[in-house]
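Minimal example, chain plus iron/sulfur cluster.
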Amino acid sequence: MPEEKKTKTVKTIKVDVDKCNGCRACEMICSAYHAAPKYSGNNPERSRVRVIREPLRDLYVPVYAGEYTPAECLGRDKYVIDGKEYEECAFCRASCPSRDLFKEPDSGLPLKCDMCEGEDEPLCVKWCIVDALTYEEREEEAEEDEKPEDIDVGIEALADKYGMDKIMDAVARMSQQKKD
Ligand code: SF4
Ligand code: SF4
């Protein structure tokens, strides 16, 4: 029987910036859903999506919290939209040491969008009544997990137990004995 290919589910939220009106319902529901206990508060600073707002230009850009990074990056992005230059990092998804965005306000712990794990559809998508947010799921072939060779696993276990220097000494000694 042919071996079944492993697949993974890729989840995407498509953001249509032209449709977003900056109502911030997405921020509200996200922060409420992630409050402890659930729905006990709705502080947007706890939201995993933040809407960058420019009302005078009628520009609203929802940005989703991505990975935590322990160090500021040295290469930065600057966006110019409709002739206006936005500050560095304005649309970055990372929770990083250079700003307070995407950090839990009390503890400072990083926030990351979890796609409302367990819900049939992300709540920010459900609450966006103008359809600026659309949820899509697709199956993709997963990379086969690369299995370490037995010898690697064995050496790693020995290195953990005795330290790499001792292992190298032992290998040198054994190889010398073989030659003698
Ligand atoms: S709920 Fe929709 S329209 Fe409102 S700010 Fe969020 S993305 Fe924009
Ligand atoms: S998908 Fe869920 S966790 Fe992510 S921003 Fe939307 S409401 Fe928050």
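Residues 164-179 form the longest helix (16 residues). The first strand starts at residue 7 and ends at 15.
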